[in-house]
Structure formats: structure tokens, C-alpha cells
Design brief:
The complex is a heterodimer of chains A (115) and B (114).
Chain A lengths: L3 E4 L2 E4 L5 E7 L5 E7 L6 E8 L2 E4 L6 E3 L9 E3 L8 E8 L10 E2 L3 E5 L1
Parallel strand pairs in A: 2-11
Antiparallel strand pairs in A: 1-3, 3-8, 4-5, 4-9, 5-6, 7-8, 9-10, 9-11
Chain B lengths: L3 E2 L5 E4 L4 E7 L6 E7 L6 E6 L3 E5 L2 E6 L4 E6 L8 E9 L7 E4 L3 E6 L1
Parallel strand pairs in B: 2-11
Antiparallel strand pairs in B: 1-3, 3-8, 4-5, 4-9, 6-7, 7-8, 9-10, 9-11
The chains are: A mainly beta (115), B mainly beta (114).
């Protein structure tokens, strides 16, 4: 089955810790994205990658970092510099970035809580 | 002004009725429009895409787009309790020289009552 997997499903972080969220896709999609969802707010874009070894900041990149060493994988690190990291983190992918027919599909999400 | 606006609801409709969900957007050059369904605690699921003015039907779902009015809607016919969820409107804008941007509304919560 083709799809997007995220792990872990739930993650607890202590103050001052860095944590890494995993995102893997086997859809052969070129583009991948990380969003954050907070109650009462729309999804906000953290980072995106159009191709391997390339990524760009989204609207709220401060306190986050990513890598794209493989087409299938786009891990997100939440650093201690992120002041309010408790949120639902969603990874998405799409065939490409440049087409208007660019449907994005989401993984199941990781719920991060800061203790 | 929010880029994509939706009424947060809840929108309550009886089982078997038509649910009408609305979305307005501010960027006139937006080109693609999507509806996602999100159950509580779950991730968004793409249910409809629409790219040109008019109606697009898929089963019980109909998406309607009016670019002149900057308005997109989703109709759900014969609403079922399983349709109870939050519906997210998303708008894609292609930018010359930079990456395209998908902007989400905050969602409308739909409740289908027995």
C-alpha cells in the first residue's frame, strides 16, 4: 500500500530537549511538507522540500530544522529554540511543486507535548 | 484579513439533509481549491479538488467554485452521522519564481444529527 507514515504517534518532550519527528512516503512524490496544527488555527507551513537535498522555510520555520537526504524521507527536528512546540505535526507530500494540480496528501500525524 | 475564511460552526444538519459548507479567499490569482475532511484527533483527508469555475460532483459531494466572487463551497447530500467532522478549505496559489503555496482555512465543524 502506498502512503505516508509518521512516527511516533505521540511524543513527549522535556524543556530544553531536541526531538526528531519521522516522515516517510512510498508514493514516489517529489515534494514533501511539514505543517503544524494548533486548536482553532489553520494548518501552518513549517518547511517544505521540492526535491532531494533542497528545502525551504515556510511561514513558521523558527525553532525547527529539516533534512532531505532521500526522496522518501523528510524528518523534522523540533529544537529547544522553539518556544511553544506543543502541537499536532502533520507531514504531507505531493507529486511536485510547480503544478496547479498539486494535491497534497497527509500522514497520520505526530502529537507533541512539552512536559 | 484572513487569506482563507470559513465559518467555524458548528453547522448542525439532520441526517439525510444537505450540508452546505462555504469558503472565501482573498488572493485573486489562486488557481486550485481543495476540501479536506478531518475527524477529531486524525489527520486531514483530501475529499475534493476543483480547478475551474462551476460544479464538480463526486458521489454525495459537490464542490462549487466561483472565481469572480472568490468563493468555493462543498455540498454534502444525504448527510450521514459519519460525515460529522471538521472540513478544511485549502487554496493553492502559484507564484512566479517561487514555490506554490497552499493556504488552509481554520475549518468548519459539521454535526449530523439523528
Amino acid at each position: 500500500d502506498g502512503g505516508i507514515t509518521q512516527s511516533p504517534k505521540y511524543l513527549f518532550r522535556k524543556e530544553g530537549q531536541n526531538v526528531t519527528l519521522s516522515c516517510e512516503q512510498n508514493l514516489n512524490h517529489d515534494a514533501m511538507y511539514w505543517y503544524r496544527q494548533d486548536p482553532g488555527q489553520g494548518l501552518r507551513l513549517i518547511y517544505y522540500s521540492q526535491i532531494v537535498n533542497d528545502f525551504q522555510k515556510g511561514d513558521i520555520a523558527e525553532g525547527y530544522s529539516v533534512s532531505r537526504e532521500k526522496k522518501e524521507s523528510f524528518p523534522l527536528t523540533v529544537t529547544s529554540a522553539q518556544k511553544n512546540p506543543t502541537a499536532f505535526y502533520l507531514c504531507a507530500s505531493s507529486k511536485g511543486q510547480g503544478s496547479s494540480y498539486n494535491e497534497q496528501f497527509f500522514g497520520p500525524g505526530t502529537r507533541l507535548t512539552v512536559l | 484579513q484572513k487569506e482563507v475564511e470559513q465559518n467555524s460552526g458548528p453547522l448542525s444538519v439532520p441526517e439525510g439533509a444537505i450540508a452546505s459548507l462555504n469558503c472565501t479567499y482573498s488572493d485573486r490569482v489562486s488557481q486550485s481549491f481543495f476540501w479536506y475532511r478531518q475527524y477529531s484527533g486524525k489527520s486531514p483527508e483530501l475529499i475534493m479538488s476543483i480547478y475551474s469555475n462551476g460544479d464538480k460532483e463526486d458521489g454525495r459531494f459537490t464542490a462549487q467554485l466561483n472565481k469572480a466572487s472568490q468563493y468555493v463551497s462543498l455540498l454534502i447530500r444525504d448527510s450521514q452521522p459519519s460525515d460529522s467532522a471538521t472540513y478544511l478549505c485549502a487554496v493553492l496559489t502559484l507564484n512566479t519564481g517561487t514555490a506554490s503555496k497552499l493556504t488552509f482555512g481554520t475549518g468548519t465543524r459539521l454535526q449530523v444529527t439523528l
